[in-house]
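So, who can interpret the following?
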Amino acid sequence: MNTLGFYKSFVLLILLLLGSSSLDAKQQIGNRLQGSASALEGTIYVLTCYVSETGWSPEEVESYSAMINEAEEWLVTQAKNYGKEVTFINGTNGLEEPLLLDNIVSGAGVGDEPVDLVSKLMPMIGYKNGLKFIDWLNSNYDCDGCLVLIVANKPGRGYSMAYKDDYDPYKYFLEGTILYTSYEEGVPTCAAGIAHEMCHLFGAEDLYATFIQTEENEARARELFPDDIMLAVSYDINKKKIDKLTAWLVGLTDEMEDWYLSFLYE
C-alpha cells in the first residue's frame, strides 16, 4: 500500500465513524489493521522525539539511537520470515532544540497512564494534531504507515498508545509509544523492549499476564509461543521472534486459527 492507500485507510476510518460497516469483523479485532501503523509491511516512517526534563547528552542519544536501529533491523528480518518487505525511514525531533517537559509520567502498567501524549506533543513540534503531521508526511514521503517514539531519559515502564476505530482520530490516529532509558528498577532498556512496543502499534497484544491479560493465557503462551517478543523480551533480541499469532495480528500473514481469539482481551 502506497501513500494513496494510506489515505484510503483514513477514508475507511471516516466511513466507519459515520456508520459504515465497510471494515469486516476480522479487521476490527483489537488494534489489528487500524491506525497510522496499521501493519508491519511496506515503508514505515518512524519519528523519534527525544523528550526530557533536563535535556539529552550526545552519548545518551547515540546509545538510544543504536537500540532503535537494532529493533528496526530485527523487525525487518522477522517480516522477511513471512515473505514481507519492510523499510524504515527515520526522523528525529528534540535534539537541536530540547523538548523539555515537566513531570514526565513513568508508566506503571496498571492502565491509568495518559494515552494522549502524541497529540499533546504535536503542537510542540509544529503540527496542530497528528493528522496534520500525516499531511506533511504524505507531501514529503511515499509511506505506508508511520508511528511516533517518545523517548524520555529517565526510568519508567514503556507503554503504547495504539489506535482503534472508535477513538477520536484527531487525537489518536497517529500512533505512538513512550519509552525510557531504563526501567524503574534501574535496569537499562533494550532493543527488544523497543521492538515489543512498536509491535503493539502494528496490532500485537501482550501475551504475559497484565491487568487485562490473564495468567491462564500467559501459561498457554509459554507452551505455544515461548520465544514470542510479546511474551517476554531479552537483551539478546535474536533469541526472540514474531510467532504465528503475533504475525497475524501485525499483518504479516492472513493465516489465522479461531483459537487465536482466546488470547485477545477485547
In short: Confidence is low (pLDDT under 50) at residues 11-27.
